[in-house]
Design a protein that fits this description.
7-stranded mixed beta sheet, Quinone Oxidoreductase, Chain A, domain 1, single chain, 18 strands
Length: 310
């Protein structure tokens, strides 16, 4: 079968590979891209393992054995480590990562699969993976009505939509007017800037040290800042005075639990979250590298939809 395989940073090749091994084999009908894919392409990633490595983790398709439409979740927790026993399966110390969505077929543990609701397009189902991470991140916040989301990429816009659905007053801060317009279309307010120390709940959705600092700068005294964007490895210095004297709470938000994936699928299925707001063009495996490196939609926040059969 054909698959996109990472052989090293920047070295993505579409090639013939052996049929996948796994408890279940799924014929991939759609796999969507995200910022993590670009990080993996450029710099590698701890979840990749050794090169050459399968690539792609937002995947939906059809089980070969049963014909069921499924989302292939990108992780399976071990169930026995301390976080798993405490119910924090997203923090599993021995997570099995399921990668390889940019291929004609993918092998996966049965525990990674989630049934796709009838009528939900495969491209929409694939987006349940990042949306589930946003569902989890919203749960890491507070019940404050006034909220800022720093960063209008697809994760920031998904966060904004979830918060709007929850009745919040949401401002999405982004320097690109195209992304601010997307935020407006989702029921939030796209803005170029906000007053310093003015927001009681801030979600950072960029994943750079300067953005973490900017999120801290937006936080009002007593606020909570949820760091959703993952920074590169290493330490990030944060302002001690804001944390100590202003009692600004800083929390992280990572990944999702299986139930949050099912919640995301339901939100996409019932139309509360419209996948078309985030979908970019459809490409085949041969067009993946070029489209990842030079996105064809300008400054808007979009996700490529990869159709391996194209």
């Amino acid at each position: 079968m054909r698959a996109a395989i990472l052989h090293g940073p920047g070295d993505l090749r579409v090639e013939e590979v052996a049929e996948p091994a796994g408890e279940v084999v799924v014929e991939v009908r759609a796999a969507t891209t995200c910022g993590t894919d670009l990080k993996m392409l450029r710099h590698g990633h701890p979840t990749l393992g050794a090169y050459p490595a399968p690539f792609g983790h937002e995947t939906a398709g059809v089980r070969i054995d049963s014909g069921e439409r499924v989302l292939v979740g990108d992780s399976v927790p071990c169930g026995v480590c301390a976080p798993c026993r405490a119910g924090a399966t997203h923090l599993c110390r021995a997570m099995t990562w399921v990668l390889g969505g940019f291929a004609e077929r993918i092998g996966a543990p049965a525990a990674a699969l989630h049934l796709v609701p009838d009528g939900l397009p495969f491209a929409a189902a694939a987006m349940a993976e990042p949306l589930a991470a946003c569902v989890h991140a919203v749960g890491r916040g507070t019940r404050e009505r006034e909220v800022a989301v720093l960063g209008g990429g697809t994760i920031g816009l998904m966060l904004a939509r979830l918060l709007v659905l929850d009745g919040r007053d949401v401002a999405v801060v982004d320097r690109h007017h195209e992304r601010r317009a997307q935020a407006d279309d989702l029921g939030a307010r796209g803005v170029a800037a906000l007053d310093a120390e003015s927001v009681p709940l801030v979600f950072e959705a960029v994943g750079r040290p300067d953005a973490w600092h900017a999120a801290m700068g937006l936080a009002a005294p007593g606020a909570r800042v949820v760091m959703v964007g993952g920074c590169p490895p290493g330490d990030v210095a944060l302002p001690a005075a804001r944390i100590h004297y202003d009692e600004v709470d800083v929390v992280g938000a990572f990944h999702h639990r299986p139930a949050e994936v099912d919640e995301a699928l339901a939100l996409l299925s019932n139309g509360a979250v419209d996948h078309a707001a985030f979908a970019g063009p459809v490409v085949g495996l041969d067009g993946l590298l070029e489209a990842l490196v030079e996105p064809p939609w300008g400054a808007e926040a979009r996700k490529l939809v990869v159709d391996p059969g194209r």
